[in-house]
Amino acid sequence: MDQFTKDLRQKFIENANPVFALQMNAYMRNQYPFFGIKAPEQLQIRKDFLNDHGLPEIGQLTNLIKEFWEQSEREFQHFGMALSDKYSRKTNVDFIETMEYMIVTKSWWDTVDFIAANLVGAHFKRFPELIPVYTKKWMDSGNIWLQRSALLFQLKYKKNTDTELLFVLIEKLKDSKEFFIRKAIGWVLREYSKTDPVTVCGFVDSHQLQPLSRKEALKVILRKKPTS
Length: 228
What we know:
Elements: H1 3-14, H2 18-27, H3 39-53, H4 61-70, H5 74-86, H6 95-104, H7 109-126, H8 130-141, H9 144-152, H10 163-173, H11 179-193, H12 197-206, H13 211-217, H14 219-224
Helix pairs in contact: 4-5, 4-6, 5-7, 6-7, 7-9, 8-9, 9-11, 11-12, 11-13
């Protein structure tokens, strides 16, 4: 184990809270154990730790990420995502393979959603030639977390959203029985409705979406609709 990871483990142990750990485990449906360090404290630990240790060399990033993902406690994966975000304008094109590893390993919404909307979204903006290759690969994979990432990587694109691609992906997944897919369809449509409600309304009206997807997609639009 890299000394960086060993020192981080010690810092987490020093700040662990068994009571919060049980609560956090329960909230996450006992998918992964926690040290019991809540988000604001994790942020402070991250700042202090990086101030003391400095940012690792970018060439170390993938190996560190894989070490963090091998650790049992979820705070390691959260640290790894935040660390990757700091390099989002510096990674080379092949870092998509590391992000894919992060998505399919120890998968749950708390990691996948951040990775998709922040890390993958930023990476695809820098390397748009990856978009058709990886959206097809992920859609064909049968892995719900890769499919969810294909839907969510444009979550923050706003007016730069490729609606043609988004709607094609939704059309392919709209009959899925997976909760996390149905929810993602509604979420990405709801987010884009803040930019172009007319287009979202038109798409929802012309497609047979699952009830959850439709409900989530129209939340903002219906909230703004004037009452008679």
